[in-house]
Write a structure and sequence with these properties.
Layout: E1 2-4, H1 15-26, H2 28-46, H3 52-59, H4 69-80, H5 86-91, E2 97-103, H6 104-114, E3 118-125, E4 130-132, H7 139-149, E5 154-159, H8 165-168, E6 171-178, E7 181-185
Parallel strand pairs: 1-2, 1-5, 2-3, 5-6
Antiparallel strand pairs: 3-4, 6-7
Helix pairs in contact: 1-2, 2-3
């Protein structure tokens, strides 16, 4: 079993930022309101009066107002499919696990299109427009992985970020990803 971060690891860029840009063109008014709410929450976060989960929750609160949301996401994924990195497509396995801080409503459609069944991401209620539980980042990735895969043996872990060092500790080998290049990472 191999585990992968999603954004900037197997996907070129940040899927959440690309989703906001995609949505801004199609729904500028509702996106604008969410950006303002996210900015206000972001200011609170800077002064340690909020948390990253609430900032993300407010920023994406517009999703509850998009009609035919599943169809909307399908179109977004089709448009962005070209951003799945070649190195991943060449080594993809059926039992891969994607673990991402991005929202599940963004990550899961990509994974479904790739035939990936094991997806762990920040949970978001698209009908109510808010985050569910903790942001799936850092140590939380390890907690969530162990909840689902108790004693699973992880061969390799991949991420573009050192914030995923806790995730790297789950694997026999860890790799930092920059573009299509992989560099072995050691915990020393």
């Amino acid at each position: 079993m191999n585990i992968y971060d999603f954004d900037n690891t197997i996907f070129k860029g940040d899927s959440s930022v690309k989703f906001i840009k995609y949505s801004l063109i199609r729904h500028p008014f509702i996106i604008g309101i969410s950006i303002i709410k996210g900015f206000k929450e972001g200011l609170k976060y800077l002064f340690k009066k909020s948390n990253l989960g609430l900032v993300k929750s407010e920023l994406f609160s517009f999703v509850k107002d998009i009609a035919n949301f599943d169809e909307y996401m399908h179109k977004y994924v089709l448009r962005q499919q070209k951003n799945i990195k070649k190195f991943y497509l060449e080594q993809k396995k059926d039992n891969d696990v994607i673990i991402s801080a991005s929202f599940d409503f963004i990550i899961k459609p990509f994974c479904e299109s790739l035939g990936i069944k094991n997806v762990i991401a920040t949970k978001y209620d698209v009908k109510k427009g808010h985050i569910i539980g903790a942001n799936c980042k850092g140590e939380e990735k390890v907690v969530r992985f162990k909840e689902l895969f108790k004693n699973a043996k992880v061969d390799k872990a991949y991420s573009d970020s050192l914030s995923d060092t806790p995730m790297f500790t789950l694997a026999k080998e860890a790799y930092l990803v920059k573009g299509e290049e992989l560099t072995i990472f050691t915990l020393e």
